[in-house]
Amino acid sequence: MNALLRRSVIVTGGSRGLGEAICRRLAGDGYSVAVFDLESTSVTGERLAAEIGGTFLGGDVSNPRDAEAAVNSVVDRWGSLDALVNNAGVTGAHDPVGDFDVGEWHNCVDVNLNGTFYFLKYALAQMGSERQQPNGGGAVVNMSSLAGFRGMKNLSPYVASKFAIRGLTKAAAVEYAHKNIRVNCVAPTFVKVGKMDQLSDEMLEHLSSQNALPGVVQPRDVAGAVSFLLSDDARYITGHCLPIDAGALSRVANAREE
Ligand SMILES: NC(=O)c1ccc[n+]([C@@H]2O[C@H](COP(=O)([O-])OP(=O)(O)OC[C@H]3O[C@@H](n4cnc5c(N)ncnc54)[C@H](O)[C@@H]3O)[C@@H](O)[C@H]2O)c1
Q1: CA 59, CA 79: separation in Å to the nearest integer?
Q2: Distance from the CA of 133 to the CA of which of 98, 116, 155, 213 falls in 20 to 30 A?
Q3: What CATH code is carried by the domain that includes residue 67?
């Protein structure tokens, strides 16, 4: 990609897991990548940023001031913000709704849903600003999940926030389409990444048994879908949620929750 045409992107939760794979893929696509993650990940985040020629920005997605500062920092550094991947997320506590701790509920929703909103808010305002509009547009990918399509036991704030991210995606897509800004989301099934990487083959097989396709989805499969949705190949795709589900959503569920 011509240096003058180089696009900038923020990837939240970019220091490890799916976020790291997305950062690496987008850097390979030619983006200038801002790896945004908690300060506590700064060692790995800075190492990754140095490796891919990007920058690390420490902060918490559930703090709107950190989202605003991240967007401003990218614009100061690279002149514009062209893309955003709202990847940061936490699974939260595991309890049935009736036993769910109110504070734990808020923690999960604050990161997954409110964090997505804060970054969208400041990124869309920047992408739609007069300063950026002459060259036109921008693209966003939010992170939903298979849990954004169906109930999963003991994960109510996770499920609720991943459903809500699909709704927020559609609302933002219709609001910003006239500015040539596209907003989509992806919804992975279980992915072999991070802690999941240490699981036994038997456990991996069990977790993947909801899928129709054989094998286990890898981080690069999600990164490839994000790359496509941000790219000009997807220039008429907006407001959608692309499941990377290995066919799981097309299957008739064959297990009854105990
Ligand atoms: N791994 C899977 O199987 C899977 C499946 C579907 C969806 N997802 C979604 O993909 C995203 C990434 O998942 P992962 O498995 O790579 O998780 P992970 O725990 O390996 O990585 C998440 C990253 O987000 C960062 N993060 C967490 N809270 C943050 C906050 N408040 N502010 C800034 N950064 C924060 C973490 O520090 C970490 O670097 C999440 O939104 C998750 O819900 C994952």
Answers
A1: 21
A2: 116
A3: 3.40.50.720
